[in-house]
Amino acid sequence: RPRVLSGIQPTADSFHLGNYLGALRQWVALQDTHEAFYCVVDLHAITVEQDPKVLRARTRASAAQLLAIGIDPERSSLFVQSHVPEHAQLGWVLECLTGFGEAGRMTQFKDKSARQAADRISVGLFTYPILQAADILLYRADFVPVGEDQRQHLELTRDLAQRFNTRFGKTFKLPEPYIVKDTAKIYDLQDPTAKMSKSVPAGMVELLEDPKRSAKKFRSAVTDTGREIVYDPAEKAGVSNLLVIYSALSGRSIDDLVADYDGKGYGDLKKDLGEVFTEFVAPIQQRVRGYLDDPAELDKVLARGAERAREVTSGVLRAVHERVGFLPPT
Ligand code: AQP
């Protein structure tokens, strides 16, 4: 079976709807047809300052949310990145193959670093896409389910795999991004031209917030001054974003929704979407509480996942070390 690998950062108290629709929903679906490795990428989380206690709690909460949305630890290996030391080890080798200018062209870094003074930005934030390449290449993954914002990092990953293979002999597979077009980019409810992101909390809907609060956010979502409910991302970005979310959560096609809301107003659509979201998220929240009530069991699941991951990664790292010319340990 083809293999998939993906990760998510434990840098917020809850995942948001952009994470879920852009990536995590695909993680769940791919388990049926692929051998899946999914990780909570805590090494990436410390590229920005973290409170240790909070990071630990968020790492468990992230794992609990992944289980709650349907990641099945019997079928998929679910683990914490720092439990598999080969990620950081391969990361170093790949850093030494990456040009400084090449890393500097990553737009996500440029955007994030533009908001802060140079001395406040860590070198880790700069090199994070290279560690991400290591995350993926270690598993010789065929596909990487992510949102549109990760496309450039995937291209870097492929470039590095190709470079390593050319220089040292074929070792890595060139992975393909797995991006579902319809939900590749979920937009901020307050600014439907920007992606929904944890950096801008006002326009973000969280899986673990009070659904009443989410419903209110949907009701006050920014839309244009027109009246017609049609799907037109260029002219009606706000309404189109709401239709995409509604369609993804309800399983109904956008055409079907548009026909159904013919003659109705934005207010109706927003109110109904709040209800659809509440119905979707209530059982997830309940399951998250259940998993967090038993952290020892949760830790056991993660330990098992890390063990399965290491069955793959230790051999790949050994091959890499040998090919770059490191003396094997005796
Ligand atoms: N708005 C989005 N639409 C579609 N997919 C999205 N993803 C994130 N935002 C959207 C996808 O979620 C996965 C996990 O991403 P992450 O762990 O890197 O989280 P993030 O990208 O840091 O989340 P934010 O909210 O986007 O953070 P900031 O504000 O720091 O940039 C990825 O597959 C990502 O594509």
Automatic annotation (TrEMBL):
Gene3D superfamilies: HUPs, Tyrosyl-Transfer RNA Synthetase. It is found in: Cytoplasm. The gene is trpS. It comes from the Bacteria. Catalyzes the attachment of tryptophan to tRNA(Trp). Homodimer. This is Tryptophan--tRNA ligase. Its EC number is 6.1.1.2.
